[in-house]
Design a protein that fits this description.
This protein is an alpha/beta fold. The protein contains 16 helices and 22 strands. β15, α13 and β16 form a beta-alpha-beta unit. α1 crosses α4 and α4 crosses α5. Bound molecules: nicotinamide-adenine-dinucleotide.
Amino acid sequence: MTDLATHLSKLDGHLARFRGTGILNLINGKDVAGSQTFETRSPVDESLICTVAKGEASDIDAAAKAAKAAFPAWAAMSGAARKKILHRIADLIVERAEEIALCECWDTGQAYRFMSKAALRGAENFRYFADLAPSARDGQSLPTPTHMNVSSRSPIGPVGVITPWNTPFMLSTWKIAPALAAGCTVVHKPAEFSPLTARILAEIAHEAGLPEGVWNLVNGFGEGAGKALTEHSDIKAIAFVGESRTGSMIMKQGADTLKRVHFELGGKNPVIVFDDADLDRALDAAIFMIYSLNGERCTSSSRLLIQESVADEFEAKLVERVNNLKVGHPLDPATEVGPLIHKTHFDKVTSYFDIAKSDGAKIAAGGAALGGDGWYVKPTLFTGASNDMTIAQEEIFGPVLTSIRFKDEAEALTVANDVQYGLTGYIWTNDVTRALRFSEALEAGMIWVNSENVRHLPTPFGGVKASGIGRDGGQWSFEFYMEQKNVAFALGQHKIARLGA
Ligand code: NAD
């Protein structure tokens, strides 16, 4: 049985190498120190993990040039050869899954029980897109009586990938694997709060035989390295995961170079529970979808819409379970909720406790910091809320659930759609006709009926409204990372208009 002490001792071994040099950038296959550094600290106790190279515009320029130089050969490599390398990356992720999970937990505060799976999911992402690499360029033949149209796809060029700090390892693989499978080269700018596993991942890629310059890692801050990446003329597209207002900034920054953008942004996702649902399963799913991953999850069900007729009983059970969640050290296998990523985020999340009170909602559970070291907050439930309250409208991004009661289906739909976001929705009902009707009208990119978020990689992932632009998954990822070309061949002597004859 692996326990906290064993995890801590293994972690210490894994971190030792970072303590000397710090985390360096990886540009054109070479380690590059930044002209300046910043520190990454653990949210568990604020202790220094290591220093990190602080990339600036000049580092981004070097990385973009390397990605540009590496692009022709990587794009020309057969899909079968790319597939082999991507599978090798997946193999190495699996070999180092424990190290990745331990580092991720320490760097982000996420609980080990979830991060061990997230590391393996990163390998799955690589395997899935590896298998698609040989067919990535495939197109269609679209004949007419006069012409044979033949379409094909080709990789767009060097791309920038900008990722956030929540489940950073898994999200990086989710964006980078399809880019490489498509034949693009990459400059990755990971979040400044969680640089550890992005470095391990880039090292794995090189160990797996990825040619120099195909994958470049530049650490740094959004306003420095991130901005420079979005503005660089050699970078053809930006795949971004993060906050909606950052997405808006990136769109402006990329305008001069006509950047193609793909945005996976914030959410304020409803879980709608009707009185005819299997309420025990709905309760399990609602709790899982907001309190797992510390609630720092774009697809979290942060608004509970509960039908009045069952609300008292449902909320009472909820309070009991929320108070019973195991908050603790992220490396303790028993922990369900760890500390929030950073003081800045802790301040943001805890500020909603006062906002809830002044909004007029009731704090039915939690509503305070845990106290002691680390950025821990008590899992929190707000009840008696209405949808116009700030706690129902803004993405809190912590283990904080806002419960809103509704009378009937029409009211549930109005409330569900009355937010700026539209990432996911979760509908609980045993009335199949209602489920169909409701899911049709619900403004969200992804909806689960009688289920928590269960991902199937070929399905489209993404949001509507302020939750994003574009989709990932299966062929949708290739649509973003590739250009379409159509060639029309005349089949014979079709009539050509003769002007000036
Ligand atoms: P963030 O927007 O603050 O930062 C994300 C990344 O963008 C970081 O790497 C940051 O350095 C960079 N960045 C910041 N300013 C930039 C700029 N001007 N130009 C270029 N890059 C810049 O987001 P965060 O706080 O790290 O992550 C949490 C957010 O991410 C939440 O809103 C969450 O919902 C969202 N998210 C969405 C999805 C999804 O699939 N829709 C998935 C995970 C997270």
